Batch of 2 targets.
Target 1
Amino acid sequence: MTGDPTRPLLMVEHLTQRFGGLVAVSDVSFSARDREITAIIGPNGAGKTTVFNCLTGFYPPTSGRLTVSHCGRSWLLERMEAHRIAGAARVARTFQNVRLFGGMSVLENLIVAQHNKLMKASFFTLAGLFGLPSFRRAEVEAVDKARYWLNRVGLVGVADWQAGNLPYGAQRRLEIARAMCTEPRLLCLDEPAAGLNPRESADLSELLRFIRDQHQIGVLLIEHDMSVVMQISDHVVVLDYGRKISEGPPEQVRLDPAVIAAYLGEEGDG
Amino acid sequence: MEYFLQQLINGLTLGAIYGLIAIGYTMVYGIIGMINFAHGEIYMIGAFVSVISFLVLGAAGITWVPLAVAVVLVVSMLFTAVYGWTIERIAYRPLRGSTRLAPLISAIGMSIFLQNYVQLVQGARVKALPPVISDVIVIMVREDGFKVSISYLQILIILLTFALMVGFTQIILRTSLGRAQRACEQDMKMASLLGVDVDKTISQTFVMGAALAGVAGVMVTMYYGVIDFYIGFLAGIKAFTAAVLGGIGSLPGAMLGGLTIGMIEAFWSAYFSVEYKDVAAFAILVLVLIFRPTGLLGRPEIEKV
């Protein structure tokens, strides 16, 4: 299943987001392709998370257009409710500060992510209540998918733990697994490497490559860890003070004087 | 001893009814953190619907009691479910995202509106229903002739409540609807980002709670035989007390709280004075709130990261 070859998976056109007098994002345009990892980088307060929030329906953008296209169809994200963005346009995201359902088990976190499929299979709960075979089958499938991802992120052993009791690195991985359980076409990750040790970030890079290559979806990544960004991204967008200052393949971006001045300049190139 | 046993049975019955109403409070509070003060009125409407349906069934000649009771239960649940859905849709949903106080005021308004609406269309006079199930089982007899008895109706109320409790716990724990409800309870925004339709889930919660209140309405009609448009107020407050007592947000807590309030009322009426039974029930509430603010089974508030 590939997207419409003529249109990129995600097109952001002239996105502007104002909060009162503050312009968080100003006239930003970029696109992200299927089967590519697109990184958004920039100093703190550059508007990266705001872009994500517009994409996932936290607030409607002040102006601009956000189009997701796959399977020959397009969705205008700025006009959709949050649950349709996940369910129909198939955009999933994770958060900078992990947002798991801490009171539910690890496995349940992954099954909630398959809610829509299960609701349909259970005739909106009736079949589930009486344990009808169609619902049982859907449940088994949901658990299989959850196990697949638990296996992938190395959490099989703790499937029955309360998600809130997991160590931090494991919570991060679980959040990615949960996002993948919604079967997204575009996965948005907000600083997935934050707070991870070098070993864990290497595993993360591996996981993201696997998601891109084996599941053939687009990944949009906000990241501060330059080693991760340079290693795995196919395309980099640089924001500063809400504006796009550079865009291109990583090798090109890291040499861009504007980027060095704004961001890499102080620290060298990582 | 015999007297104690009799009061235990009465308290259990009353407590089951309170518990059923309390579940509605606790579920709604759990998911949107709001006290639905119109919930007592839903129960009152359930009671009215049951009287009307019993009369209609009687007029239609359906007098086989199990069938009549089953039909009335289903009809009342349907009606109260529709009321619950409508109330959420018109009085609470538009206020979602505003201050915490706004839906609370709206709920109180809804409660007053429903009371007056029923008073207008059904009249202010007390409605009576002849006993539908009146057989009793005498368990034991004291020397002076005092009989300890449990009526078929009490058995029905206790068993039905127990069955509904088990069924609802299963829904919450095992079905995808229940999982979505628990997810919304913890982080509504995140649930919607995973494709859960939060508005729909909240509506379903209201519908479930209202249907249970409808069952409680049918039970109270059959148990006491008299209802009026005002019964929702006190029963609502008592059930709310029960929910807080058990730990608001907790399903078994609501049931435990309901049983506790029912017992306190029954025993207080038996050994002290009937007039002060409400004082006893609410005094317990005050004590619990002072010494155990999260209620009997409530979890302490979990800090969100």
Target 2
Amino acid sequence: MKRQMTGAQMVVQALKDQGVDTVFGYPGGAVLPIYDEIFLQNDIRHILVRHEQGAVHAAEGYARSTGKPGVVLVTSGPGATNAVTGLTDALLDSIPIVVLTGQVATFLIGTDGFQEADTVGITRPCTKHNWLVKDTERLSETIHQAFHVATSGRPGPVLIDIPKDVQFAEGSYVEKPKAKISHYKPRMKADIEQVQDLVALIEKAERPVFYTGGGVINSGPGASQLLRELVDGTGFPVTSTLMGLGAYPASGKNWLGMLGMHGLYEANLAMHGCDLMINLGARFDDRITGKVEAFSPGSHKVHVDIDPSSINKVIRVDLPIIGDIAHVLEDVLKVWKSRGRKTNTAAVRQWWSRIDEWKSANCLNYTPSDTTIKPQYALERLEALTKGHDRYIATEVGQHQMWAAQFLGFEEPNRWMTSGGLGTMGYGFPASIGVQIAHPDALVINVAGEASWLMNMQEMGTAVQYRLPVKQFILNNERLGMVRQWQELMHGERYSQSWSEALPDFVKLAEAFGAKGILCKDPKDLDDAIMEMIEYDGPVIFDCLVEKHENCFPMIPSGKAHNEILLGAEAEAFVGGGALV
Amino acid sequence: MLMSPLKIEKGASSQSVYALRDPNSEVEEKHTLAVLVENEPGVLARVIGLFSGRGYNIESLTVAEVDHTGHLSRITIVTKGTPAVIEQIKAQLGRIVPVHEVHDLTVEGPSVERELALIKVSGEGDKRVEALRLADIFRANVVDSTLGSFVFEITGTPEKIDAFADLMRPLGLREMARTGVAALARGSE
């Protein structure tokens, strides 16, 4: 017998059946029936954010640190439009998010009712899929379908728009196993012939490189394990995009560091000079490729991706393999082992000696200072003092984000939350809240710039309300650092609108919210201050005043090739000026 | 049907003088795509939004439900782009959740394409007679007539309709409505 219930009850029931334990949200007129049901139960915890954008980023942080979909509940109109940035962020970074929005009653749709917006119209291009449910009978099944779509294939955000009368009306509940998950069944396993072709390439390659991306993380922890086995087995060097950090451990012997616009010299030159590039779940983003025509000119390119539209979108590849990374890696390992674990050892050894030369450029070198805190130094100390902890790092967007990617090491997947594709300033703080909710005992740090951090600073209220000990590690240069850097290097040092003349006193700001504030401006005090931050049981705003005019190197200027990478003065002095190759 | 974006088939393009299409070619080709979609609200907006959002061309687009019980609609799109862009369009279409199948009729084998147009021509005397005579040659039907005008109904390839319209222009073409291309693969499959 089918269970009869109201639409609002269905929402809560369906979330429970999907294993949801946490919802990030903000109430409003058009979702009140659902909030009423949330009030009447104890299985699902609702986290009240301070802005809907914060809800979506928090759900993203939750999703990325757990591998489970993040769930958001917001009201119609402004509630939905405020969620748009988060949805777009999740779409570009392939993060599974289910957003439930209230909508005006069906009979009011199209009348410009109060807090009415065409939510499915507005969010169509920034969701993987979305639904307007006009009939309570269809509601529970749609929610089950939404979870299926969000989490299968290439993950992404979905949205369900639920008019208020649909929430009030009664209908019959469709259980999760009975829900038709339609025809949407993305392909997981690749053709075995292609896997064999890849193994043949691996056996012959003289200058191979693994180029890994967020797809390895999204494929689950198993994919990271298989990647490690393949990389260590073959002895090939491995680099990763910003999104893929942690899939291969930073302490691993084959690790080259991140590649791309602010990637490491050795990683970018290895990409440029390789003869076999094995792309695992990355998408040849423009921050990775630089000038497309000059991208890795002499290599045979293999691209493994679950999304067929990623193949040949930017870079034409020689061997496309459509499938889930874990499934493909498992097959590759099986075939490679069965054929005798062969590689071109002598050539690969030679390749490594070239790479080691590039490494000796020490591209992350910077000029230390006794008087001002260099941002790189701050991150080196943060890394040293937090390494042993059960640590999760979120970031905002800008110079600090790139420095964090360069100077912090990630040993495990799902430990690194950053807005890669969309580059959303204001992402990190709410994301750190989502991570802390999912991992209450972990050390969660948001490495931030002061400008990004201010974009969602209202979430201090959330952090304090739920006693979340998130650490806001703000590298404060009183500038939009990355904008300033580009203006210095590419716009004749005309610093148009790239600094703030009215920054808050972050210590007082923390105290105003009932949190702890720490100010540090002397490198000699830094270690003690960081320890104080770590040891404090509660949210901390750490205002770290850093060098104001530091540039982030290496840097591949936009539109240039990998071998036109710019190094900082310190590193260039070391290799005798200019980039090699 | 699973798409294989890289499969380059023999004679893939009528515009190419070579048996194989060069994937790096910068020459734009016209392709007719048949897209089978779930007949649900917003699905057409998704398809059109994909084309506008990613900067692809739509030369013609038709849509109608073709399977009432199966809840399926067929969208026929004529688009233009380099081979790489066409492959990308197909892959992007295939990624839309309510899209069931994407067929490139231009590549997959011989196909028939037809379009219907209604063309209003007004004129008198010799011009009126000439319009009627040409309509006969083109096998266009008269579906409305007054003492000073005709509405012709013509079916054929887009090129045939273009040719007919060009001939009608000096004879007093007033207005034209076209359905866009409908297309099917030839043969029993």
